[in-house]
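Researcher: Structure for this, please.
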Amino acid sequence: MSARRPLPYAVRPVLAAVALAPVVALALAACGSSTVEDPGAAPTAAVRPLTTQPFAPDGALQCPASLQHAEGMTVPEKPQGVDGAARLLPQRPPVSLVVCAYPVMDIMATTPLTAPFPLKRRTVATEAQRTSVVETLTWAPRSDLRPRACTAMAGNETAYLVGAAYGDAIVWVAAKADANACSATTNGDFVSGAPLGIALDETFGTTRRPTVADESCRVRSWGRLGDDRLLAPGGGPTVVVCRRGVDGWTHATALDAGRSAEVVAALRALSTKPTGQTCRPSGKTSDRRFTLVLRYAVGPSVQVTVDPDCDPAVLGSGLDSQDAGGLVALVEQWSPPIPGPDPNGSVSSDGSVSSNGSVGPPPLPAPAPGGVTEVPGSPGGGVQPTPPNQPTETPPTR
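Model: Predicted structure, token format:
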């Protein structure tokens, strides 16, 4: 018999976590917890049995002491006890959630950081942080695995591991925060093209973003699960029509439930293909351009940009459509065209306009930072103070 391959780090029994499974199940039932399934979900994959993995005395998973790769796409173990191919994380609260941070690039270092990259911070998430992280990862969109254009700005990079324990399941998620928002996110089975390491860095790292008022047309989103199959993923969202005027202001029209349902049905009826995130302008006036913001009861919003004078005419988070069909006429019943901005720039799926077509999604707002445990002797420095909020360049909606 051949010797077993050693695990990447020490293991200890998880009997305490497993014993909590019935308690967690009863607690969820008592709370009336419900799930919102996405009709575009992938087929169920084989579920791996739960094995022993190391837990710390605080009850959360132990972080690996170091990472061997700077890409931020390697997890200690693939999902166990749950279908990991359906979502990054199950749509239920974990018993515990730990976030492990590993600096992999420091532009101020005298010598480049090299593998192995040691653990810098281990953070056991608070209940509020768990809720935020689980929602972000649960609804992360599926990647089409196609390469995408990225900028090449220099900046610090931190690889993150999120360890979620459910009593009857354990899931690790790997992500990386990089200056160009080019990194993907994975649990080993499911890959999302969303650079969710940036959201983790804003909550558990040293990056702080100014908070943005929750206005109708100022949504921050990396996409939503199912946006690789439908322009309007499953569920019954309400719709806001956003038009950018020549005056620089954004004009919002909120649709009622009935009109929202008509717009959603029109979006789902369009013929689509995977999006390249930009369109080629015709040079005509683009007064009919608008962005649809789809707001769901649970999970992130979705943005769809529509411009009948662009090719393709409809840009979603993961798909686009060559022809807007009857969508433009339908929306114009309730939100007529207004004089628009310069039509000679390309449009990205977040509604931004760029002369070179290389616009990425905007950053997510940062929740309040939590407590962290610094690991002595590792790179990355200490936690920096939060800078004061800075004014945004986008004028407020009126």
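Researcher: Any notable elements?
Model: The chain has six helices and 20 strands. The longest helix spans residues 257-269.
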